[in-house]
């Protein structure tokens, strides 16, 4: 009955979408394909699945070398039993296509700058052609092509990718039109054959999400408005409260590669308060909150004497889910965890011997260089006093219902020219800027994942991660032999202080990346005496590290995780589950004394005082029913606006917002903080004036929330998981879950823990996990959102590596597929 109601709701929603967005006849097409969508034989009705559906099949595929059995457990998690790696990769590709074809295909369309091909130039409030041009100009396809060459030069990586691609295509080739995933029918297009390039594109999309955030144009604008002293106060390097991944006080070896600031940098690059602001072209950014938590505790801190590893990557919350859960068994190896539909291997998981996971490094590896072209043809550009020949890439963007658009992209020694006279929404200064991005360089991330899946101990872990390039990650590890370790691994440019924070001159090679930081400076923490390793996207090292890291990595989750792990003893997996879902707000703990100190209670009205008393009595937890959490969050946003908006509004151009840790640490240590004064008023405001005024202004929003029944944190935050096309009927909205910014349970409105995993490496592995979605990508399936409520309530499922003999006897199996070449 649930599916019936869901499909009826789905039909009404989709009907409105079609009525409002029916494509007009174009070219040789005489009529729109609305009838196809509604067809009883081939339309969306065919996508409804019976609640008791079983997933049985005998698949014959010529690409297989042996026989494979797949058992689907009660949660529709496949347990793959193959006689060799090739067949395991083939079947993983087949299953990804069987259950997530539209998702994996759509994501590669987005990565390749091809959305206009299926969505049209514009629609649903989005400018798809603009988005496509941005990704073409960024060089996503160029980057994927470079990585594909590297991937296919390694025999093992190529074999894995080839087998996976063949498995995807085996499913696509046998797919009847009536069985196309629903979204294909809605958007009126068909699946195309998978390629290894699509897998490379998916991995580059991961690089965009995790290693493309930068504010070079915004920082250049700020540099032009503020003095050097003001700039350092607004955008400091490092934090006083920092508890880095590698502990403070670590003595670093003398750098073998000594980076040299260009001789002309002080006059050319560091031009503070010069009123030479730049404007910024269209530049969508990945969510700066893309991060994660991970930690591992050694046996000296656990009840069993064995390590426990935990990981919860924080990413956008979408349906179909980012992850697909799986067990893969081949002779000599069993691995369980989650992978990305569109690529082989388990990405985060465990095998019979070890467990592994990742958090994002947050390093700035994307910079811009100003290019001086000789003339409007852009055939030559100036570099070290000489004119260099430009090469070009022509990127053809097909547009649904319209003529194709071609981007003629200039390629330089730095990389693709993103902004020039031909690019829509060009920079108002009329100049050209090339993008240097580490993701453009050849790399083979599949190699790392493939080796980790088979790792047997610490040496295998070190070997597996040693070649990983981009997006750089904090790679955590634990083994049944008792080892724990963490290492921030990636290919990092060695930078001088503030290099890459601003736009750089592209005619001078002294501003290039002078080399890659030596491998010995990617410090590995291995079995520290204090008994744990952890990361939560904070800086990896303190500012004594010999190379400039940059950025403004958030410190607070790292602080509270390390505090808890330091205090805990006799740890159990249940303790770790409670820690992963912990809603304590360490940022609020640090802020509360100073906010109380600087609030003038005598200036508050009765209504304001009532809210203030609620805040004062708040327990510092961002639980669902806590009103204090909402008051604090709105108040802090108001303080940030009161403190900085007057200075930032000096320019109409995009400016970087100072981060909350900068505000808090500044008012904690400086009672005369210069930015407390509003430069637009004749009087000189104090911190007390700002904090009190911010609270009074915040009460406007808070009173509305109170009157509408949304002052409790869960209602105010209003978390949800959205379908990739943002269709409400395909989404799970208004979920009751706490957490938020700076909290271990980092659940925001549409962003948060995309997979929670706890692995106890006891003699018999004890593992738990959950993600906010379901194994099927079909909104008409009961397995579409199976795990959402469990995830929201902080519960976990048991994850078990199980033999074929054992699983074949289990009750509640949802089907069995067999694969053979005959």
What does this 3D model show about the protein?
GO terms for molecular function: hydrolase activity. This protein has 3 domains: 1-377 and 434-582 and 754-822, Aminohydrolase, N-terminal nucleophile (Ntn) domain (Glutamine Phosphoribosylpyrophosphate, subunit 1, domain 1, 4-Layer Sandwich); 378-433, Penicillin G acylase, beta-roll domain, CATH 2.30.120.10; 586-717, Penicillin amidase (Acylase) alpha subunit, N-terminal domain (Orthogonal Bundle). Helices cover 33% and strands 18% of the residues. It has 24 helices and 31 strands. Helix 3 (85-111) packs across helix 7 (155-173), helix 6 (140-153) packs across helix 9 (196-211) and helix 18 (606-616) packs across helix 19.
Main sheet: strand order: 1-31-2-3-9-10-11-12-20-21-23
- The percentage helix is 25-40%
CATH homologous superfamily descriptor of the largest domain? Aminohydrolase, N-terminal nucleophile (Ntn) domain
What proportion strand?
A: 15-25%
Helix tally? 24
Task: Quote the distance from N terminus to C terminus.
Answer: 40 Å
- The fold-level CATH name of the largest domain is Glutamine Phosphoribosylpyrophosphate, subunit 1, domain 1
CATH architecture of the largest domain: 4-Layer Sandwich
Q: How many structural domains in the coordinates? A: 3
Spans of 5+ residues with little confidence (pLDDT < 50)? 1-32
Please identify the top-level CATH class of the largest domain: Alpha Beta
- Counting DSSP E segments of at least 2 residues, the number of strands comes to 31
Major β-sheet, in short?
A: 11 strands, mixed
Mean pLDDT: 93
The chain-level structural class is alpha+beta
CA radius of gyration: 27 Å
Shape: globular
